[in-house]
From TrEMBL:
GO cellular component annotations of the record: cytosol
Keyword Hydrolase carried by entry: yes
Name by which UniProt lists this protein: Putative HNH nuclease YajD
InterPro entries the record matches: HNH (IPR002711), HNH_nuc (IPR003615)
Keyword match Hydrolase: yes
Taxonomic lineage of the native organism: Bacteria, Bacillati, Bacillota, Clostridia, Eubacteriales
Keywords: Endonuclease, Hydrolase, Nuclease
Amino acid sequence: MPRKPMKPCKHPGCALLTSGRFCEVHAKQHAATVLSSTEKGYDGRWRKAKKKFLESHPLCVRCMKVGELTKANVVDHIIPHRGDMNLFWDESNWQPLCTRCHNRKTRVEDMQILYKY
């Protein structure tokens, strides 16, 4: 059976080929930066707030802009909170999205470079 093709390491500037996301050199470095969903703030309190928000905002705002009515099942942070708990819990920074719209938005955001000065 053919093996999965090797891909370049996802660490910026590293061209080593790997079968995973990161090469052996960078895998340990990135494992320490990955937090669980609970550590990011997505706990029982979040699940309750999300449920309440989606009950009062049941439709995807992006689909509505193009005239479609799609049930929202994701509460998206309009401005990515990046660990800022004040921004995380700010309901004015929340929007209801369907999974398709949320995945598109997240993919675009993940392609952007985040500069930290």
